Amino acid sequence: MLLDRRSFAAGSAALLSGCATTSGRSYSNCTPLAPVLVDQSRVIRTVAGLRPYRRSGFVVRREQLGEKTLVHNYGHGGGGITLSWGSSKLATELGLQGHSGPVAVLGAGVMGLSTARLVQEAGFPVTIYTAALPPDTTSNIAGGQFHPFAVFHEGDVTPEFMAQFTRALDYSWRRFQIMVGDDYGIRWLPTYVEADSVEDKVIANFPPVNRMLSRAEHPFPLDSVRRYDTMYVETGRYLRQTTRDVQIAGGRIEVRKFATPADIAALPETLVFNCTGLGSRDLFGDQLLTPIRGQLAILEPQPEIRYAAQGNFGYMFPRADGILLGGTFERGVWDATPQPADIANIIAGHKRFFSSFRCSA
User: Fold this and answer.
1) Distance from first CA to last CA of the chain, Å, rounded?
2) Calpha distance 105→302 (Å, rounded)
3) Among 107, 120, 164, 285, who pairs with 112 as Cys (CB 3.0-4.6 Å)?
4) How far apart are CA 258 and CA 275, in angstroms?
């Protein structure tokens, strides 16, 4: 099944006795982890982003726009980072076969950049047309966990879509692995989730180290905890480096906004990839697209935090640029402005949770 970030019920269990709290010691009944130091005074910024969600899943589709070929690649919900390389691979396979000449990509978020790089790797010149550049794209606000979160509603997808989804996830999983390191800001981390069973695998090798823990293997005040490993992306660094990759390979980036399909039809390129995310709702009339707002409070970095955690309190992802505390899941909200009351609740929930460890490193 897909990741459910509704775990770790904050305050749902009383503190358990019998665990020492002295740093650096080993414990017979509690394996320590460093707690996040959550306090309003440590907040360095707050952000809110809009996930482009479709209940029936993301769109990868080819059609004609006058004399041009148009390939759509949008609507990935909370899985844009995760599915970016794989979905773009599907899109370029649809568009590049039999094509010759320059290519246009609409959008400079993670989907547009990965599509542009795959176009270049196939040997075609590319121009990215975008209304906004990083750091002013939705992708910059993403938490950056590799996991297909809130990509679709299970009751609204077809077997054909699920086959497409599986292919996209598999390619992205393999592609991100070869990009791990400081250049792109990608690293592996253990992730702890409250759960009473291991997660079903969508593809054969994801997620790895997927197992239930005994009470002695974690410090959380919970009876059932699952641990798995996955990759985390520092999105600001990743987008900067990927943009440089496009430019180093000869790609052009032009800031330009399109109001109608007729504006796109006026482009000189005969093949266009649409990676405009939520913009496709107005630009191409896709009324199935809806925003899902997510809000984040970001604490100053804490290098000793080398794990992620998720639950009813929200989720915590540690990155070099700060400790991300999320989050909200607000359907149909178009205002990408952090709400003070929501941010205060996020901070308070995380503070309660991380102060309730049975033992700490």
Assistant:
1) 32
2) 38
3) 107
4) 12
The rounded distance, in Å, linking the Cα atoms of 278 and 75 is: 7
Is the distance from CB of 126 to CB of 113 less than 8 angstroms?
no
DSSP structural state of residue 128: E
| Residue 5: how many other CB atoms lie within 10 Å | 20
The torsion of the CA quartet 141, 263, 126, 251, rounded to 10 degrees, works out to -60
Write out pLDDT tens, residues 186-220: 999 999 998 888 988 889 999 999 999 999 999 99
What pLDDT digit, counting tens, does each position of 134-193 carry? 888 888 888 999 999 999 999 999 999 999 999 999 999 999 999 999 999 999 999 999
Picking from 144, 172, 180, the residue whose alpha carbon sits closest to that of residue 88 is 172
Quickly count: other Cβ atoms within 10 Å of residue 335's Cβ. 11
Asked whether the beta carbons of 103 and 130 are under 8 A apart, the reply is no
Residue 314 corresponds to which tokens in the numbers above?
Answer: 């929200």
Q: What is the pTM of this model?
A: 0.91
* Structural contact between residues 343 and 44, judged by C-beta atoms closer than 8 angstroms: no
